[in-house]
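Re-running the complex after MR caught last week's input typo. The corrected sequence lines follow. Everything else is unchanged.
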Amino acid sequence: MHIDDNILITYGGVARKLSKSENVFEEGEKPRFFYQIVEGEIKIFSSNIEGKELTQAIYVEGESFGGPPLLLEKPYPSTAQATTQSVVMRISRENFIHILNDFPEISRAMLYSFAERIYEKSEMAQVWVGHSPEEKIEQFLIKNKLKNPNDHEEENIVPFTRQQIADFTGLRVETVIRTLKKMSEIGKVKIINHKLYY
Amino acid sequence: MHIDDNILITYGGVARKLSKSENVFEEGEKPRFFYQIVEGEIKIFSSNIEGKELTQAIYVEGESFGGPPLLLEKPYPSTAQATTQSVVMRISRENFIHILNDFPEISRAMLYSFAERIYEKSEMAQVWVGHSPEEKIEQFLIKNKLKNPNDHEEENIVPFTRQQIADFTGLRVETVIRTLKKMSEIGKVKIINHKLYY
DNA sequence: CGGTTACTTGACTAGCTTCAAGCCTTGTGG
DNA sequence: CCACAAGGCTTGAAGCTAGTCAAGTAACCG
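Corrected-run output:
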């Protein structure tokens, strides 16, 4: 889902710069804006009382986020945080709805984009059904590989740290490390100089 | 999300009766139809190799399901199964898209319905973040209570079997039973005559 | 009232988490 | 260009606890 920047600006869109680790919005807050990433990377996560995080998604340049809670006017179920210095454009709920009304094709694109997100989240369940760490990690790697269809020919570097894999799968770093080691021994992944290939 | 039955019929909708435990579609299949429940209850779940199931959602009369994979033309990530004798109406992808084009208000309602489903799935993550069984079960019960806003005054019966709670939370029945017992001892839930109140 | 489904309990085990400590890699500033 | 800081990775040992298996008991439905 990507709305042309010019349209956003016409409807009152304002760009804002975020430093690394800065939050765009936080779990529990009431939504006020629609956000689209101009530059950088935004991570969506929820956390429990002990501070453990579960990463729900990572969005990059051109993608939008926070739409569903905004439309429904329900508090954010998760926090959005810049993982790197970023620039996001934001626009009020009111104007966002004007755009949906004025541009049926954007409305339609949004429907497909939401469908995509539901589909991804269902797939994510596959990661969570897996009872062994190996199953979870493998599902995660598979899901991720499918997202980069150019790369299906050979093993490619996995652009995640062990901690990120842990946050996505709900495992501990140490478990991820030990499991990946085991997986590399049986040839399911390659680890060269600490870098992970799948 | 509910489309008027007459509209569905006008666009070639056909009703089909399902016995208990019969599948509407299965994980991996290619979607061909849009489904809406006329009567009964449909459970959506994914399973791993060992046959363990994770329930993703339960839909009832008037609700539709299977939309996202159909729109995206991607294989079903989960299986849909009647939990009780049911009747579902189905309509081809082509005609479903005609409806979306012919009725902008249905298209809009669908967008909000998808937003709702994304929101619910994000909330569901809260269930999975919880590392202790107690945390998971409590999150599940909270989520469920919020869905019945009429019932917020006192403790109400929980309309799920322990097995269903287990399938939703990814725990084992025995663990659910033992945890609920513990929770009833500290007053978080009530168990009267094997029935659960929260 | 008989059969089926749901619930319960106990004992045991595997393996994930936790804690603690140390190593490697990368980027930055002098 | 080098040194050092910071973040990421790795390892070991020990404990906890959810899962498993097995064997019941209780409730519900026709």
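None of the earlier attempt is carried over here. Residues 130-197 of chain B form a domain with the Arc Repressor Mutant, subunit A fold (CATH 1.10.10.10). Residues 132-133, 171-172, 174-175, 178, 193-194 of chain B lie near DNA strand D (CB under 10 Å from a C1').
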